[in-house]
Design a protein that fits this description.
Length: 313
Amino acid sequence: MSSRQLRKSLRTDFDPSLRLRVRRAAFRLRQLSHLPSLAAGGNLERPIFIIGAPRSGTSLLYSILRRSSHLANWPGEAHEVWEADYHPALRGWDSNQLTAADLTPQAATRIRRRFFLAVGNKRRLIDKTPRNSVRVPFVNELFPDATYVFLRRDGRDNTNSLINAWRTTRYRTYRLPEPHSIPGVDPLWWKFILYPGWREDAHGPLEVVCARQWLASNRGALDASRAIQPRHWIDVRYEDLVERPEAQIGRILAALDLPYDDALREKARSIAATPINVVTAPEPGKWRRENPDEIGSVLWLIEPVMRELGYEV
């Protein structure tokens, strides 16, 4: 893979519209405006990282919190920042998992610089990258004063959503060097997180791949949380967020030391009316209607971590 192909593959949009191109141009101008602050020794302070399994509702939570006037973000998911030096193609197609030992001084300087130019020194960074669930120690080595907002979701509904998303033409993540043979999906593309040992599941079935993606994300976050100070770790249940959005957003903002202004309240109220980044409309227990056999066959795999997350099976 050439460097140009690698950079392009890390964008979340493969065929950007004219509107998105204009937004990118405006973003580059904003980056230029922050160069003097960077040259004067500016640093990011107290960044906020939303983590969780893919399809757990992180986009929904991110869409609300980034409305705060005290926060700024990279346009879309910042894979081109996180993976410019750590794309799986550069690491033998192993996985997305990273540890503190993987952080090089060169990569650290580049990542901090790119995020600072996106944010400046007057606002805090907020980032939503589900793949960071398996690299929290790496992120924490970069930003020791970071706060993590961990979104957990019932493993049955989350795995069901992953199955549905894999079956669509959306969410392309990595074009593999060799096609996989997972039945019922595009063999050229891997979608969502690349977990350790993924090659063992490259023949399917799809529900096992999705269950392991959920499992790796939540196991990674839970294990990492033990080394994070409690005041820097905020747990959120997707089900609580959907049922009581205003109260949950207020709790999160208080923990982040951010004001709860009218724009944020209005956005929180709109959750039920305007679902974010969904394949089908949200519905608790939807797996029973959409993919009951598939979910039933992987329940043994996800049940232990579901219980650890507080879900009864």
